[in-house]
Amino acid sequence: MGRWPVNRLLLSMSIPMMLSMMVQALYNIVDSIFVARIGEDALTAVTLAFPIQSVMIGIGVGTGVGINALLSKSLGERDFDKVNKSATNGLFLVWVSAAVFTAAGFFLSEWYFRVQTDIETIILMGRDYLFMVTVFSFAIFNQITFERLLSSTGKTFYAMISQLTGAIVNIILDPIMIFGLLGCPAMGVKGAAIATVIGQTIAGLTALYLNLTRNKEIALSFRGFKPDLWIIKTIYRVGVPSILMQISGSIMNYGINRILLSFTPTAIAVFGVFFRLQSFLFMPVFGLNNAMVPIIAFNYGAGDKSRITKTIKLSISYAAIIMIIGFLLFQWIPDKLLLLFNASEEMLFIGIAALRIISLIFLFAGFCIVGLSVFQAMGSGMESAVVAIARQLVVLLPVAWLLSLLGDVNVVWWAFPIAELISLVLCMIFLKRIYNQKIKNL
């Protein structure tokens, strides 16, 4: 990470991650396509469960970002004892988090849906889905963390193998368990959740095996393990802002769902479809970021300004290209995208306008996503949290609520591009400040 030409290094590390995360996004889309065949209520139930899943993923990814930044910086400093402690303490943290979600899933799954809707079919299907993904949350936490350990040492190809393995298993099991094929009982939405958990479990075990056999820079051993408070504090100094970002996103999703439910459950289904479709664009950019973060952190530890700035510029350029392609697709063929999810006439009427309006965020999102990851790589994660919270809670939710008072659901969607513009301005301000404080004088 300190010698190869930056463009070659970024592409060699990011392309495997981008491909694997596109497959991850694809299996989320396929999962929803199968669920939509059950009915619109099933798609609404899964969409209402998404904020909780998002919190779990956010805690796993946020902790992984903290591990990644500290571990990569320690590699740049040649402090291998700190490298190993970063990995073991990080695993300890995510296992504690998974235990909390397991307990919550047992007791709160049905309550979570009853406070949102009185439609019994949505409540029962949502409860079954949420129970499975929370009670067995160790699966997703292990997968995320072990894959992050691989990417932190530049072994993104092996992280790709893990993600592909889990995604392919999930895609194969989805129709079998949802519709009852090959002798398996038809389990509907619950079957989709079970397929997801099995795929995550297999991906996590694959990533663990690859860490033990291929990741020689890290020695995973809990012999004589004691939590290291300094390591934990350092991981969370970078990771907590990322977690807060994801939690703010979950609160935003929950709030938007409540606003849309005041119009029609179909609007929630449309919102769910948009999120799954946009993930097919955002996931490659996140894969690019997963490669970018250790490169920046390593060279920050090594004190190489030129490699840091070149990595940032290239990442912004590639992210912008991906986002522009997505914007054009959402503008040109929104009806065809919605029909993938068995869209009704009402869903098409609401969804075509929604996809065209919300996709305006793609014009700014590439720069913002890269900017937030730069903050994290430089150990300035709080700036990322400020931008995300301002965008989603301070701007987006209040604006969406105010627009909803006009009585037209199609007006509500304009809250998204308005909030993204605010995010862009804040990102530019913070990126300039971090450059002047931490990069300029290296």
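That was protein one. Protein two is written in the same sequence-then-structure order:
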Amino acid sequence: MKKIILIIGISLTSITAFGQTKEGETSYSFSLQQAVDFAIQNQNNIKNALLDEEIAKNKVKEVTGMGLPQINSSFDLKDFIEIPTTVLPDFITPTVVGVNQYYFGLTPVTPYKPGEGLPAKFGTQYQATASIDASQLLFSGDYFLGLKASKVYVELSGKATQRSKIEAASAVSKAYYTVLINQERILLMDANIVRLKKTMDDTKTLLDNGLVEKIDYDRLTVAYNNLLTEHEKVERLLRVGVYLLKYQMGMDINAELTLTDKLTDVKFDVNSSVSAEKFDYAKRIEYNLLETQYHIAELELKRNKFSFLPNAFAYGSMGRSAQRNTFNIFSTGYKWYPTSLVGAKITLPLFTGLQRNYRLQQAKLSLQKAENNLEFIKKSIDLELSSSVTILQNAAAALENQRKNMTVAEDVFRVAKLKYDQGVGSNIEVITAETALKESQTNYYNALFDALIAKIDFDKANGALN
């Protein structure tokens, strides 16, 4: 019982919001599978994972678009408040000064300084240019490998979504079974309360007739009150468990929820064919994720190798420009001067400070790391599978043992009560038997909870939650 309280308490600390039910729907009746299906449709983590898938798909389209023709247009309007000055070599002044001195004996008022340039202004105050530019990627190793990697990234996002669904199935299953256990506990405690209340009433009658001592009645009263307190505690745990289940499902906390599965339908048999030697690792989403990351590392290595190859582009441009000394750029009847060109460009970095070489080495090491991760996850899956089989077998055996103990405790209580009713047994025997029965019931449900958790963990380790 303490384990159930602990798990519910830890889980509740993460509750910050609840899902919304469809308008008008306030009552649900779900089996475990239906509860899991509802969670997959409504849990926020899965919704976000699906959005990540869509983001990844659009990322692929974005990368694909980089290899399609790129067409851009532009319009540039300039107002030269001061037209730029260009300094030209002064070939005029020396000639004029020399002629004046030679023929007329004239000397310039400002002495001529050889080497000075001749300032000149070219152009007009208003200039406008309208153009259309186009380019096409012809070859790029980075692009083609990047396109492949982006498609693998979509695959990775899909597997991440699958992992979220598996985690949701595991969490919903544990919460579902917790509610069922507490419901069964309450039904059993109701029967215990009725039974103990009858014994207490019978004892009160005997007390009124002077056939028993008051201490006998007081002992039963204490046991009865303790049972009522325990019943209230389990009822509160049940409410909390239902809230937790609704949270895990993404359901409105105020919706009515009825569980239709029965604990008696759960089988704890372990398939004898399950073993680490025969297990298909592809059943486990964790392995698939690391395998996809390994493929990404392979593509990254190829991309870095391709970076030593040249990139080729084709481009073209067509435009018209206008130059005016008055602002009549948009007036008709004035000439615009055309310009057009086409070209091709090949780029090949010759030396980049060994950056490409170091990136290549990093990619090789990353690939080795991804390979090591694959080997590690295989060993982890082997360990998890073997341990889950053992834990489930032990839990099933413990559950069966506690079931037998509870049956024996029920029989002991029945006999003690019968002896007491016939006047050949003591009140202490009844209370002791009742206490032992309650303890055996608590132990049984703790064992049942452990077995259910072990069953879920086994199914998850075996890849059965997919």
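Residues 2-66+166-294+375-461 form a domain with the Outer membrane efflux proteins (OEP) fold (CATH 1.20.1600.10). Keep this in mind for the problem set.
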